[in-house]
Every structure is written in structure tokens, then in C-alpha cells.
Fold this sequence. Notes:
Elements: E1 3-7, H1 11-23, E2 27-31, H2 34-42, E3 48-50, E4 56-58, E5 68-71, H3 80-89, E6 98-102, H4 106-115, E7 120-123, H5 128-142
Parallel strand pairs: 1-2, 1-5, 5-6, 6-7
Antiparallel strand pairs: 3-4
Amino acid sequence: xxxxxxxxxxARIAKLCxxxxxxxxxxxxxxxxxxxxxxxxxxxxAGRHVLPSRSIITKQPDSLPIDVLILDLxxxxxTGIEVLHSLRANMRTRxxxxxxxxxxTPTEVASALSIAPRACFIEKPFxxxxxxxxxxxVLQSTH
Length: 143
């Protein structure tokens, strides 16, 4: 199971993606706004978490809540390229595997891939098979 982050501003597409990925056995965190996503990924997490059973789990301070991020390049307020620049400028997220899932122009896709050459691109509209294969491919290319 992979922890997938999804930054998609279209609620219908986000729900469709999340449903497909959950069906494939992945856990999905949907970020509805670029700022929410950046706050979740760029903010240091606490080193210790107390569970209801009173046991303590120590988590690596630099670990992320997701293993891969699916990023739409057309977002409100902050563009996908700006999100990408922020992620690549931060040590915690510099090597985060990315999938661009977008109806972007070839120029926009080329720009994004020049910043994150190991990322995968899935064009909208996409199929279940393309989405699931994208997860597998991007994780294999980064390990």
C-alpha cells in the first residue's frame, strides 16, 4: 500500500482519482488547495505521537505523510509549477516522487518535467490502468 497525496482542485476528478487509488489498495490524502498541500508537506512533523493506547510511536522528523504526490498543473491561486518549485526547493520534499495529472499544454508539461525529470505525466482524461501504472512507474524510477 502506498500513501498517495492528491492535489486536484476539481472535486469530481479528485473523488474519481481517490476512489480508483483506494480500489487499487492505496491510501489517499486529498489536498483541496495548493496551500493546504504545501503546509502539510513543508511543515516539520512532530517527532513523537501518543496513541490512544498510551503507547508512543517515534516517527522520523523528516518523514512525509505521503509516498507520492499526484499534482494537477492547473490550480487556483498558486499554479502547479509554483507548487513544484516550492517542493523542489525544500530538502524534505526535494525527492518526493511526483505524477503530473493534467490537461496541460505540451509546453507546460515540458516545463514541469524540466524541474522534476523523474516525474510521470498522465494526461486527463485518464484510465484506471494509467493511474495505477503511474504510481508503480514513478516509484520504480525513484528507487
